[in-house]
Amino acid sequence: MLNYLSILLYLSSSSLASILPRWSPPIVRLPYATYQGYHNESSGLDVFLGVRYAASTEGQNRWREAQPPIDQSNDGILNATVYPKQCPQATAGGIISAAQYDPLQSVDSEDCLFVNIYAPPNAKNLPVLVWIHGGGWDHNSAREFDPTPLINYSNNSFISVIIQYRLGAFGFLQSPLMLKDNGLNVGITDARASLKWVQKYIGLFGGDKDKVTIWGQSSGGGTILHLLAAQAENQERMNENLWKNVVMSSPYLVPMGKCDSRYWQNQFNNFSTAANCSSSANTLECLRNTTTDALKILSHQFDTILQPGHPSAYEPCIEGEGGYLISNTAERLKNGKIPNSYIIGGSNFNDGSSFVSTTLTPPNNFTNISAEADVRLENFLINSFPLSRGSQDVQRILDLYPLNQFIDNHARGAEIFQDVIFACPVDWTLDKTQNGWRYLYAVKDAIHARDNAYEFPYFYNSLSPYSPTLYASYIAPIISLITSDSPNSLQSLQPVNDPTWPIYSNKGEYKVLNVTVANISSSYISQNQPQIGTEERCDFWAQVRIDNGW
């Protein structure tokens, strides 16, 4: 009987504990709204989910730069304890599997320009990490990226802001008609708008606006490359000082081309026709008056319509004078200025593998496998990049990547793809700064996005076997950059004998992240592995992209 009573008393006290929280919910008052978040007793962090940084993007705000947040100062205390709606997804991914995906899913909304904020209680003047998610500019949202493990591992020494931005056709349908409203590349300029919001308001959450680190992976890293290029276009933008430090993980720098090129005009015209807007006197106005659901369906349909020269449907383009992305980002990274930043940049050992079909490798029954491999590779090159069949550039690529240097033609094509899109852009960027550190993620199969398992393990922990020492070898230096502008300042958080990270520009040295068969970190310093892009190959790709405007 005593045991039964004890159980009843325990259950009663547990119920009371759940009804009577030990921490008062945190409240932050912004000039335009007051938000109430919650205190996570397990992590010890205050969490604010769905804090608005810009107005809804529907209707007349479509393909227009992010507008200021609406004034909700008279609406009382707003709930910031549930995830915001995500920007319309053009394809499955993130929280939605292919089997679950529906372009009309209720979790998507054009009213999606929100940030999630994670902060230690009573924070004051702490460094700030802003995360820009990847997902090919057509899927993902803030809810897949919970930075709690990062913050806790740092002994709660910084604040994190996770942003959302427009995707698919809502963020990257391009037409010169949008230029007057600064409506081109709005998926990129949304990120800039969120960073300007951080400069204005992060102090109210306990953050220091002068100690901001931006971190992005894949298309999120690509967004950072475009921000680096665009912010350096004039002194006014440079003076905005939106960040101090940068982390780029496999940044996705796909071909661009001018926004008024035939490629983008064809896509816009076909999209407008499908929306029954092609005969309208004002096509853009017609699209702005089209229902959200109709545009969601079209955004999904056009996501799979690829044209030669571009590996994905939705990509940034070169706006020219009067725009935000004024010039070719590849050219800016190689030859122009970028904002003075402390930069960690890296790519994965097999970043290109999953982007290239295995049909590149001819069957063994071909009499001349080498010749057939070259034919298949050339077809791949002209479909993926703005290259012409039989051109000198294509012949040079065949010479720079001889088949006998690879296990098969698929590996050859994968190396080319990762050089063009991921590895070389990292190298170009780090060559422009005296404060840059490079890494190569080589764990498990090391295909694209495998590193998410360590960056955001709550959601992506199944992608790679967990190694506490590798986590320390990879994440501790990034925390060190966030808090001290150098990856080498927090040795106490790193594994014993973890190598000091040399500046990349000294000798082209970089850190290889790997584990032993016992799943123990075996990170080391290396030079000259082709997986990061050789100097000869990267110089070639820079010149091709510059000469041909992509």
UniProtKB/TrEMBL annotation:
Keywords: Hydrolase, Signal. Residues 1-17 form the signal peptide. It is an enzyme of class 3 (hydrolase). The keyword Membrane does not apply. GO terms for molecular function: hydrolase activity. SUPFAM superfamilies: alpha/beta-Hydrolases (SSF53474). Its EC number is 3.1.1.-. PROSITE patterns: CARBOXYLESTERASE_B_1, CARBOXYLESTERASE_B_2. It comes from the Eukaryota. Residues 25-528 form the Carboxylesterase type B domain. The keyword Cell membrane does not apply. InterPro entries: AB_hydrolase_fold, CarbesteraseB, Carboxylesterase_B_AS, Carboxylesterase_B_CS, Type-B_Carboxylest/Lipase. Belongs to the type-B carboxylesterase/lipase family. This is Carboxylic ester hydrolase. It comes from Kwoniella dendrophila CBS 6074.
